[in-house]
Amino acid sequence: MKKIDLKPKRVPDSWGRLPFGLMWGHTISMGQFEECVTISRAFDSDYLLKGKYCLAKVPIKGFVEKINKTSDLSRAISYKKKDPEYFELGICVPSSCSANMADNLLKTIIKTVFNQDIKDNRTVDEQYCKVDEPIKLRPIDIFAILSSIYGQQFIEK
């Protein structure tokens, strides 16, 4: 029986999907954060592929505005008394990708699959991206943590 390597398939599988109930106001699909950030594969001594999770904000205001406002669906979308402006989508890209590269990738996929252009909005921002890396603590951080632990012991006595 032939062995199949499933690791290459983990990146797209960790992406969010259009959620059930989009027309009822569910405007977020987080994807699989843990699956994405635990991706780690060395291709040679010089390159380690790691997963980078980003929460993208895809503008959907134009899509929502096109819906017939007299339908039951449109009343459901506006349950917050306001049409949603964004759909939040979890995506997984290689850690070497910048937010700008991930933004271009997502816009290309949306253009290809849905035939919709997103020109003026940035969908991916670096502040909403995460790579699983060890936490780097400065000496003052370590001092603050230890002080709070030992300080609490003295207060309890």
UniProtKB/TrEMBL annotation:
Family matches, as PANTHER family: O-ACYLTRANSFERASE, O-ACYLTRANSFERASE LIKE PROTEIN
Pfam family, one: NRF
Name of the molecule in the record: NRF domain-containing protein
InterPro entries recorded: Nose-resist-to-fluoxetine_N, O2_lipid_transport_reg
Organism from which the protein derives: Glossina austeni
Domain Nose resistant-to-fluoxetine protein N-terminal positions: 3-131
